[in-house]
Amino acid sequence: MKNIAIIGAGMTGLSLAYNLHEHNITIFDKSWRAGGRVSTRQHDNYLFDHGAHYLSINHSVNQLNEVVNRYNLGQVIEIDFATDYLKNKKTKKKIIIGQNGMNSIPKSIFDNIKVKNNLNSKIIKISKNSNDLYSLFSEKEEYKNFDYVLICIPYLQSKELSKDLIDFTQIDSEPSYDPIHTVMLSYKDNNNINIKAGLNLHKDISFFMNQNIKFNELSHDCWVLNMSSEYTKNNIDIDKTELEKYAQSIFEETFDIKNNVSFIKSHRWLYGQTKLSYNAISKKNWINSKDNKIFLCGDWVQGKSLSDAWDAGEKLSHYIKILSV
What we know:
CATH architecture: 3-Layer(bba) Sandwich
Largest sheet: 8 strands, mixed
């Protein structure tokens, strides 16, 4: 049995913990909860999936399907979906959503795998001991004697954390992210919008989704809007009030909304989604140290979806098992 530290409690970190359960696992995350960008935000009586919106019913990661079914984590719904709203392309679409918001999926996995964890612990340094084991340091504590350290956070953060342990001159091209501004808004009265989600609402809004189809307890009409990556990059530090007013005006003009907004808030995802994956560049599934003890992995390895993140962890776990024999 090996002592394994997993830095990052997103879907890749959870996949690794699930697949390496026979080892002594400790998960670290700077957040107070598991899930990473699979995030459900609550404000008073408002609920919004403002990170990952849904799980595709057609994804090809069989193990993730098995886990979702095993723990009863999701439900399939069919909605009216705009494949391209600007071009009036619409269809019926089946998707998988969490039983209580999308974050309920990673939260339930985290609760079920029952591993040691240190949430609210941002790891700022990793060092090798004299006995060839690794120590992790937060601002307040040291965590000693790990055989493997698996870093499952955004690539640039992973690189910064491991730059003294991995030779990054071997990396010819690096994966990249698109940032995304997300706007959450709600109306007291139902606006009776038939399309419940879709792409290309506007040149500056790449995705929109109704939240009432996910949360039956919502009494107000709640929506999440993703600004396009191009708009976000061009307005990365925009004043939040200005951003929110702009997104609201587009949404209300598009659907001829006369009701007054009852709630609006925005969030910037600096690493919103993978633009160019490491696997697409290199055909490799992780980045590792020379001694095969430090590994970098995450959704940036395989792609931008929730299932890609799980797949990345599953692939690396198979290799760790071989090394551990």
